């Protein structure tokens, strides 16, 4: 809605609340003379074509055709055969619209009393029925056929539209849909291309029946509620993939307008491509029972060979025995939103399929798990994405099998009492993780003190594990607000985590002495520190992975290759410790060029000794 107090129509100067983000003030400006818009709030900008592309999620040609139609302009002439095909499709679409009107009228007839009662029991208000153009096909063999023929619609068009079938007995064609509640299926441009019918007779062989495939309708390349969901997703709403018509209608009525459904089958590759054209990460909402999980896993296997960076899926499992319609009716939209908020990534489903209900109490079973996961991940064509999936699986595997090694022999040290001043410190934890977390603390403290140093390190910072959740949240705040300066960063951290978290980090003795804190604002010094600490973290994590793999392989019968790997790593570490090393106490870990400190080298040798002990004992 234009703000007429701020706009100047004579000069083509228009102002309105921005359609791309929620606001009350008019910060969206249109210069009608130049044909451009700009929002001073969210910085959206473009011309008439980009406006339709962004506001209604249209493709370029769709936006051009829509503007041309609104302006009454003729589109450039197309290939004659393509033009003839488009004209035939337009004729069929007109027939389908006539059928929509007929079914809508029949819903208000006396024959539809039971259908109206059913819709009322399902909670569909008259407004919702109007919005989705729900209708009714009465009993009788030629009701729609007779109505359309009375309007002089050619028989051939009615047949090609898939609304009637020819009789095997030489009689008149008969209606496909009888005694069913009718749901028009529209394409992305809003044209009715098919119908879905829900049987009123509980003894009917097919509870739901779709139109047959026609020149307009390809079931595997269509989505229910495609156009409205695309528009909603273009405005930032989540794209939700539900199971059926009623779920989509219930979701939309509850405020989740970006809901779509496949048409009675599992999601196809074509439908998945359509979903990704709307949103890079659709949320698949499925029943939380066994059938729902199986459907999710089938979709996962369809998606794996098609995935690439920026295109994935999330899965939201509803309470067992409930679909979105049931959940919204019973507990409201907030309960549905809570389910969506708990949606998990595809990699978690991949891991769940491989591990759920299985035991890995032998080397053979663990090896089989590794083989199965490798085969599935290998389907991902994007090399970078495949590597990230491998990293995520490796972390899950580490968490699964790590507790099984806690009973292994380790050298015991005489326990020392912990002083009160160190009880809250993460350095009281044993093992190399303390130093790992200390490096993360130095990195986070550095970017808080000098946010400008983040430039060029965004990727490694985002991939940093952050064992302490508070460190991870501080890191995320800096990445989000760093461009606003240190004061804005400190204010955001205090607002989200409280002042104590920041004080605890900055006052830690090992952090407080860092030169980057004493010389806050020195971008060059901060970036040198970030480069060094991030490189050490990467090397340390690589070392931990190598040791974990070696331990795992030695849990069964060790072979010569593994023994060689361990002895070679130990020899490399010992060689690096000899006089003449130039790097002030750092040691080379072999061919990959990673360096470890004296303390890390000691931990490494202790772990190697533990592994050797386990092997000798076996």
TrEMBL record:
EC number, UniProt record: 2.7.7.101
Cofactor(s) required, per the database record: Zn(2+)
UniProt cofactor note: Binds 1 zinc ion per monomer.
Keywords: DNA replication, DNA-binding, DNA-directed RNA polymerase, Magnesium, Metal-binding, Nucleotidyltransferase, Primosome, Transcription, Transferase, Zinc, Zinc-finger
Coiled coil region boundaries: none
Entry-linked Gene3D superfamilies: 3.40.1360.10, DNA primase, catalytic core, N-terminal domain, Zinc finger, CHC2-type domain
UniProt keyword Nucleotidyltransferase, yes or no: yes
UniProt record, GO biological process: DNA replication, synthesis of primer
Enzyme class: transferase
Residues in Toprim domain copies: 237-319
Entry's Gene Ontology cellular component terms: cytoplasm; DNA-directed RNA polymerase complex; primosome complex
Pfam family, one: Toprim_4
Disordered: annotated segments: 572-593
DNA-binding keyword on record: yes
Top-level taxon in the UniProt lineage: Bacteria
InterPro entries noted in UniProt: DNA_primase_core_N_sf, DNA_primase_DnaB-bd, DNA_primase_DnaG, DNA_primase_Znf_CHC2, DnaG_bac, DNAG_N, DnaG_primase, TOPRIM_DnaG_bac
A single GO molecular function term of this UniProt record: DNA-directed RNA polymerase activity
Swiss-Prot/TrEMBL catalytic activity: ssDNA + n NTP = ssDNA/pppN(pN)n-1 hybrid + (n-1) diphosphate
Zinc finger (CHC2-type): 18-42
UniProt comment concerning the protein's domains: Contains an N-terminal zinc-binding domain, a central core domain that contains the primase activity, and a C-terminal DnaB-binding domain.
Assembly behavior: Monomer. Interacts with DnaB.
Primary role: RNA polymerase that catalyzes the synthesis of short RNA molecules used as primers for DNA polymerase during DNA replication.
Family in the record: Belongs to the DnaG primase family.
Protein name, as recorded: DNA primase
Organism in which the protein naturally occurs: Pseudooceanicola batsensis (strain ATCC BAA-863 / DSM 15984 / KCTC 12145 / HTCC2597)
Organism ancestry: Bacteria, Pseudomonadati, Pseudomonadota, Alphaproteobacteria, Rhodobacterales
């Amino acid at each position: 809605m234009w703000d007429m107090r701020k706009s100047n129509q004579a000069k083509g100067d228009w102002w309105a609340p921005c359609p791309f983000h929620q606001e009350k003030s008019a910060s969206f400006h249109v210069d009608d003379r130049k044909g451009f818009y700009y929002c001073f709030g969210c910085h959206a900008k473009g011309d008439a074509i980009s406006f339709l592309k962004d506001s209604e999620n249209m493709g370029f040609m769709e936006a051009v055709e829509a503007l041309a139609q609104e302006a009454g302009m003729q589109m450039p002439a197309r290939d004659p055969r393509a033009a003839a095909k488009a004209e035939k499709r337009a004729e069929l679409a007109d027939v389908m619209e006539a059928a929509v009107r007929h079914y809508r009228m029949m819903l208000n007839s006396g024959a539809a009393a039971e259908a109206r009662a059913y819709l009322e029991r399902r909670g569909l208000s008259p407004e919702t029925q109007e919005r989705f153009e729900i209708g009714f096909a009465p009993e009788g063999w030629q009701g729609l056929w007779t109505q359309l023929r009375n309007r002089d619609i050619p028989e051939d068009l009615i047949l090609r539209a898939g609304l009637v079938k020819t009789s095997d007995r030489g009689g008149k064609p008969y209606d496909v849909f009888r005694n069913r509640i009718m749901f028009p299926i529209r394409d992305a441009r809003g044209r009715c291309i098919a119908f879905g019918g829900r049987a009123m007779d509980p003894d009917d062989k097919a509870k739901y029946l779709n139109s047959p495939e026609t020149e307009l309708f390809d079931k595997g390349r269509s989505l229910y509620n495609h156009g409205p969901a695309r528009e909603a997703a273009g405005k930032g709403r989540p794209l939700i993939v539900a199971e059926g018509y009623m779920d989509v209608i219930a979701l939309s009525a509850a405020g989740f307008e970006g809901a779509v459904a496949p048409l009675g089958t599992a999601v196809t590759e074509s439908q998945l491509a359509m979903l990704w054209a709307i949103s890079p990460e659709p949320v698949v909402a499925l029943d939380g029972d066994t059938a729902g999980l199986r459907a999710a896993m089938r979709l996962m296997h369809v998606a794996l060979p098609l995935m690439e960076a920026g295109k994935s899926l999330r899965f939201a499992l509803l309470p067992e025995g409930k679909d979105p319609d049931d959940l919204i009716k019973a507990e409201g939209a907030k309960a549905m939103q809570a389910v969506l908020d708990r949606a998990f990534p595809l990699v978690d489903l991949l891991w769940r399929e491989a591990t759920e209900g299985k035991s890995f109490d032998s080397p053979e079973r663990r090896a089989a798990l590794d083989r199965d996961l490798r085969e599935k991940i290998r389907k991902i064509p994007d090399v970078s994405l495949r590597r990230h999936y491998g990293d995520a699986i490796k972390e899950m595997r580490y968490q699964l099998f790590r507790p099984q090694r806690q009973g292994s022999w380790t050298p015991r040290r005489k326990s020392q009492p912990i002083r009160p001043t160190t009880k809250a410190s993460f350095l009281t934890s044993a093992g190399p993780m303390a130093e790992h977390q200390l490096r993360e603390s130095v990195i986070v403290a550095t970017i808080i003190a000098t946010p400008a140093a983040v430039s060029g390190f965004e990727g490694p910072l985002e991939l940093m594990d952050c064992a302490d959740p508070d460190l991870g949240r501080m890191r995320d705040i800096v990445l989000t607000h760093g461009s606003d300066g240190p004061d804005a960063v400190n204010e955001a951290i205090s607002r989200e985590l409280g002042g104590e978290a920041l004080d605890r980090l900055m006052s830690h003795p090992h952090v407080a002495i860092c030169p980057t804190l004493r010389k806050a604002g020195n971008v060059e010094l901060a970036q040198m520190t970030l480069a060094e600490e991030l490189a050490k973290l990467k090397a340390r994590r690589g070392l931990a992975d190598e040791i974990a793999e070696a331990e795992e392989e030695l849990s069964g019968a060790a072979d010569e290759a593994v023994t060689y790997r361990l002895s070679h790593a130990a020899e490399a570490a010992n060689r690096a410790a000899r006089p003449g090393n130039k790097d002030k106490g750092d040691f080379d870990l072999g061919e990959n060029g990673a360096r470890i400190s004296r303390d890390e080298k000691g931990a490494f040798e202790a772990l190697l000794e533990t592994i050797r002990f386990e092997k000798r004992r076996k």
